[in-house]
């Protein structure tokens, strides 16, 4: 079984190749359509990137499982010792609109834990990486979360998460809400301290957060589901019960402020 560092190099190489493919479509009016059932849009670029990633990654690691937003579900992944967890383009709406806030999110799970991760934003040439035993890096430089307090913290989340009903006593804590389309990037931004936390109170797909969760953890952030529990990956439903990612002090404050 390859070391996590070897898998990490494979992921980073594949992410950069994915970026070159995506940029050929970006701002060139790619064909796009809605997947239906509330699953959101998909573009021809998503599918082209997915095909290239699957060929490269599974070609290099044919005994690994495969879980991707843009591939048919394959239950055999549940029996694999390691599994790729991939979002070919995270932030597809932003990509279609010509924004540069989209990313490629690539991870390897061993059992239910992530052991290698890369998140790459090709339009910004930002590459976040981490392995289970190594540091979290952004373009080769170490990153770390902020030590912010909840009062005035900049929290990356969607608007509905600030509704009073989610918070104890109906009182929204005094943080500032911000947003970025790519959920994978939100975790990385919290990991590097550009924002103070990333928060979701609704279930999230594994492929959106697998890579970012390890990057944030290795940067020194506390990473949990919305109730403070450990995230477990490569599960049958491929979903996690929300997330809280922040420095240890702010993570505890957010968890304590939320309705259980």
UniProtKB/TrEMBL annotation:
Q: Where does Mg(2+) 2 bind?
A: 90
Question: So where does Mg(2+) 1 get bound?
Answer: 69, 87, 89, 208
Cofactor dependency = Mg(2+)
Q: Which GO terms describe its biological process?
A: inositol metabolic process; phosphatidylinositol phosphate biosynthetic process; signal transduction
Q: Which terms are listed as keywords in the entry?
A: Magnesium, Metal-binding
Determine the domain of life of the protein's source: Bacteria
List the GO molecular function terms: inositol monophosphate 1-phosphatase activity; metal ion binding
Q: Which residues form a coiled coil?
A: none
Q: Which family does it belong to?
A: Belongs to the inositol monophosphatase superfamily.
Q: Which PANTHER family did the record assign?
A: INOSITOL MONOPHOSPHATASE (PTHR20854), INOSITOL-1-MONOPHOSPHATASE-RELATED (PTHR20854:SF4)
- The protein here is known as 3'(2'),5'-bisphosphate nucleotidase CysQ
Please tell me the species this chain comes from.
Answer: Paracoccus siganidrum
């Amino acid at each position: 079984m390859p070391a996590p560092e070897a898998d990490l190099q494979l992921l980073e190489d594949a992410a950069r190749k994915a970026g070159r493919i995506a940029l050929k479509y970006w701002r060139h009016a790619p064909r796009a359509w809605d997947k239906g059932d509330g699953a959101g849009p998909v573009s021809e670029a998503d599918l082209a990137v997915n095909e290239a990633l699957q060929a490269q990654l599974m070609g290099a690691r044919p005994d690994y499982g495969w879980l991707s937003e843009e591939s048919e579900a394959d239950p055999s992944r549940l029996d694999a010792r390691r599994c790729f967890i991939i979002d070919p383009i995270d932030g597809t709406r932003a990509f279609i609109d010509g924004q540069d806030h989209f990313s490629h999110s690539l991870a390897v799970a061993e059992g239910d834990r992530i052991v290698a991760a890369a998140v790459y934003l090709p339009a910004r040439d930002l590459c976040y990486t981490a392995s289970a035993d190594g540091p979290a890096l952004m373009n080769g430089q170490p990153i770390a979360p902020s030590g912010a307090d909840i009062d005035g913290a900049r929290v990356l989340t969607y608007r509905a998460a600030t509704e009073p009903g989610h918070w104890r006593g109906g009182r929204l804590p005094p943080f500032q809400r911000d947003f970025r389309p790519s959920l994978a990037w939100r975790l990385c931004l919290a990991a590097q301290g550009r924002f103070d936390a990333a928060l979701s109170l609704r279930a999230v797909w594994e492929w959106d957060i697998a890579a970012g969760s390890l990057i944030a953890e290795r940067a020194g952030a506390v990473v949990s589901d919305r109730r403070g529990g450990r995230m477990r990956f490569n599960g049958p439903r491929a979903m996690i019960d929300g997330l809280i990612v922040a420095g240890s002090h702010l993570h505890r404050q957010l968890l304590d402020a939320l309705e259980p």
